[in-house]
What we know:
By secondary structure, the protein is α/β, with parallel strands linked by helices. It has one domain: NADP-dependent oxidoreductase domain (TIM Barrel), CATH 3.20.20.100. It has 14 helices and 10 strands. It has helices at 2-7, 14-26, 32-39, 74-77, 79-88, 103-114, 131-144, 161-173, 190-199, 220-227, 241-246, 263-272, 287-295, 311-314; strands at 46-48, 55-57, 61-62, 93-95, 121-126, 150-155, 177-183, 204-208, 230-234, 279-280. The strands form 2 sheets. Strands 3-4-5-6-7-8-9-10 form an 8-stranded parallel beta sheet. It has a two-stranded antiparallel sheet with strand order 1-2. Strand 5, helix 7 and strand 6 form a beta-alpha-beta unit. 47% of the residues are buried. NADP nicotinamide-adenine-dinucleotide phosphate binds next to helix 13.
Amino acid sequence: xxxxxxxxxxxxxxxxxxxTCAQLAVAGMLSNSGLAASRTATAMAxxxxxxxxxxxxxxxxxxxxxxxxxxxxxxxxxxxRVVYAxxxxxxxxIDTAAIYGRAxxxxxxxxxxxxxxxxxxxxxxxxxxxxEAGVQQMxxxxxxxxxxxLDLMQVHNLIDxxxxxxTLHDWKANGRTRYIGIxxxxxxxxxxxxxxxxSVPVDFLQINYSAEEPDAAKRLxxxxxxxGVAVIxxxxxxxxGLMRRLRDKPxxxxxxxxxxxxxxxxxxxxVLSQSAVNCVIPGTGKPEHMMDNAIAGQGPFPDPSFWTxxxxxxx
Length: 315
Ligand SMILES: NC(=O)c1ccc[n+]([C@@H]2O[C@H](COP(=O)([O-])OP(=O)(O)OC[C@H]3O[C@@H](n4cnc5c(N)ncnc54)[C@H](OP(=O)(O)O)[C@@H]3O)[C@@H](O)[C@H]2O)c1
């Protein structure tokens, strides 16, 4: 009833309505009905994957820590609502990895339970040394994710990258994954990432970029754009530290200019200001956070110059 009166208010613009929903969700006042209210709102923006032109929604969900929960716990019980919040907002990318505890199993169980696999762009990662060990780990990932095919398989942190990428090329040719890529989370590895990008063809790069770790914008993002490599951004909140530092501060007045109603949305829009970025995957296991984050997937996306004077406020 509360959402209905909000939605029907002619005095409230759509952007204001969405911001209010996000604020209420953060405060825990909206649950599944709140997610339904957001379905009628502006759709999430998409950006094309360079190697195919396939549109990819710009905000996804990372599963490091947030999905590492076992059935029976309160945290596990809400994971389905995280995925529904993503889908309701027009998102579809879920990023996981073999080494995220039982996150792959949780993702697989949630998708199986809701028959949601085909609506999700499912990305995972291999972290292994040697061809056989890598293949075994990826087969295990597919089993845990309860799928016979991934959308994206990535070499995690460049571990044994030459060997694992050779396998990934085979897997792509054999239809086990639609796209392949490499990942890293640390700025000190950007030189090595650049070398790999220049030497082996991949569809995706996943890399760290945020207001406190902005280096990727200098060389890696322009390079990915030149090479026609799609970019997924991890750690948009600096692994969570940025959010912890900002959470008690009021959001700046200029947040309204870019349609943001929370710090999370501001930090995500900072990332999406980069046109080379296809998708950002803030990690969460909380439906209200997923809903908050997804709202930042709607325009407007400011030009990078918007942040010139403002980046110091948020970093
Ligand atoms: N090498 C790699 O390939 C690599 C490395 C790191 C990460 N990743 C991927 O990238 C994803 C994102 O990175 P990350 O999870 O390390 O860090 P992150 O996205 O920068 O931050 C995650 C933290 O932000 C909190 N958070 C999320 N949404 C929020 C919101 N709306 N309001 C307040 N707090 C919010 C989360 O807590 P709650 O759970 O309480 O929401 C969590 O503590 C990972 O989950 C993973 O899938 C890949």
